[in-house]
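Box 3.1 A note on notation
Throughout this textbook, protein chains are presented in two layers. The first layer is the amino acid sequence; the second is a token string describing backbone geometry. Keep the layers aligned when reading.
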Amino acid sequence: MNLKPKNQKHELLRNSIIEELTGYFKEVKDFETDKIVFRSVYKKRLQVYKDNLTKQISTNSFNRLINYFAIGNEVVPEKIDPVLVEVKPKNDTGDLFRLATSFWSVPPSSGYGRRIRFILMDRYNGKLIGIFALGDPVIAQKIRDQWIGWNTTQRFQNISSIMDGYVVGSVPPYNTLLGGKLIVASIASKEVSNIFDRKYKEVDSEYKTQKLVNTESTSLGKPSGGLSLVTISSALGRSSIYNRINLSGILRLHRTGDVNNPNIRGYSAGWGHFHISDELYKKMTDFLKLIKSDEISKSKYGHGSNYKMRILKDVFTALDLDINNLRHKIQRELFIMPLSENFRNYLANKEDKLIKNPSSLKVISEKSLERWILPRAKRIKEQNLPDYKNWSQEDLLKAFTWHGIKNLQMR
């Protein structure tokens, strides 16, 4: 399809796209732009996200759930005792998960396809440590696919055994104690693998796409061997939370870049729809409806890669816009956490079964406290670092002013 603007409405949309992109690229001049600039660009989008959360979470729910967030004097590092809770869509766990995401400096993704969300609670004080969510990975990801070493047919046959950690992080004051590393490590727990198996192990993952043509695959298969690995991407370039995630004999988070090979950097190329506002995106979908584009109806999982990107590419093609302007220049570092010994052979169809022996959350938590949290607490005390104990009730309430504090009773 190559429909150039036929009337004034089409030309107005084209001009609106050019104006918005020109403003964005003027602010973000090159691929090495500082994180502060990107966070500034995100600021408006983050406010829209929080406005939507205000509509989704009632005042009564908010007033109840804020009590699950700790203040500094409620956290005792040596007594932290994580409990994994799967988020259910129609109870408090869903709202608590959403409230936690408001601490992010970047609006979180809503995920894609299959999705499992988790909250990690501290049994000792009943407070929230952090959250993570696993969803379907993108079908083609150059740096991931090179790192795994599989071919196209193998990828289509086995990608259903992979998930992507699209939301990962801890909340204050646990984040000051490197709680984010505990959250990442929890992904490798036996409990997470068991929940994945229960939900998806025997579920065929159909995917209606031209990419399956000329391969031996008719679908993306079923993950009968279980969860083989999880990918995680940083939000903005390098991220300290993912540095040195390694518990000997239990788990390791791998960088996909190669320090000895500058051609293998381990970063995405910076393509996406971040720099397209929701308002402009709505105009684009209205435009595709007007010209009766087939793509507008293909919004479900199984119809192809990222729906929003397909919409944008369709519009850019129709309005004769340069597709390279969908490169927003925010490069994200990709990490991979294998969850089996033989994941590469399994994904390349060299072995039929995954060799898995995941550790329990209890074991991972104990090792995480030894490796990160307790040493961090000691350094805070000895080196006058930012102290988790300083996170006060006033700080907590200030973090949630976007919701509006009404008739609040803190326990």
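The first helix runs from residue 8 to 27. Confidence is low (pLDDT under 50) at residues 300-304.
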